[in-house]
Automatic annotation (TrEMBL):
Domain M23ase beta-sheet core per the UniProt entry, residue ranges: 24-128
Domain of life: Bacteria
Family annotation (PANTHER family): MUREIN HYDROLASE ACTIVATOR ENVC, PEPTIDASE-RELATED
Identification of the protein by name: M23 family metallopeptidase
Coiled coil: none
InterPro entries registered for this protein in UniProt: Cell_wall_metabolism_enzyme, Dup_hybrid_motif, M23ase_b-sheet_dom
Organism in which the protein naturally occurs: Bacillus mesophilum
CDD domains per UniProt: M23_peptidase
Gene Ontology molecular function, alphabetical: metalloendopeptidase activity
């Protein structure tokens, strides 16, 4: 069961979880140039928001999901970009910082860790994030550009929209570029408008 969204729209991975040549790498590195927001992978509470010699600008979030404690770690953020403080509650998909190059790094990237339990220095609770991340939950930059084109809908319509979004997500239909082209050409169907409206408003299943 997927309970976490990708913490960034970047999908280029430069280092995976505990690879044969990097068994002490207990997370996944997402890397790209430019400015990229970092999102909370799930709703939770900030347990740490600090600067580390190794992790650089770093945030750790604690999540209580289905009676189980998890923690996510977001490292090497841009200097001064941390947007949350210890003790603060966050929503899934909330922007918590910007990808950067602080701490011990060789280039700009997000080092992301997922722990089934609380974070500890031995990383004994670390699991491979890619086994738990759900694609397509957080709106991309292109999708957010379209927000002004789609009206708000009444609450009773969300149930049907959620069903459409679930089917679309499971079938991995349409990339962001395709959405943008279809919207610009006014070629979106009724069902597609419901789906996109759900994404843009950050609704979660």
């Amino acid at each position: 069961m997927f309970m976490f969204i990708y913490p960034t729209t970047v999908r280029r991975i430069t280092s995976g979880f505990r690879l044969p040549n990097r068994t002490n790498h207990h997370g996944v590195d997402f890397a790209d140039s430019g400015t990229h927001e970092i999102f909370a992978a799930a709703a939770g509470t900030v347990t740490r928001s600090y600067r580390s010699p190794s992790y650089g600008e770093c945030i750790i979030l604690r999540h209580n999901l289905n009676g189980e404690t998890w923690e996510t770690l977001y490292a090497h953020m841009q200097k001064g970009s941390r947007k949350v403080v210890q003790g603060e509650t966050v929503k899934q998909g909330q922007v918590i910082g910007i990808m950067g190059n602080t701490g011990q790094t060789t280039g700009q990237h997000l080092h992301f860790e997922l722990h089934r339990g609380t974070w500890n220095a031995a990383k004994s609770n670390a699991v491979n994030p890619l086994d738990y991340l759900q694609e397509g939950q957080n709106p991309t930059a292109n999708e957010r550009k379209l927000s002004g084109m789609i009206p708000n809908w009444a609450d009773w319509q969300w149930k049907e929209a959620a069903s459409i979004y679930k089917r679309a997500r499971e079938n991995q239909i349409l990339s962001s570029d395709q959405w943008e082209k279809k919207a610009a050409a006014k070629n979106l169907t009724f069902d597609e408008i419901e789906y996109l409206n759900l994404v843009l408003n950050g609704r979660r299943l």
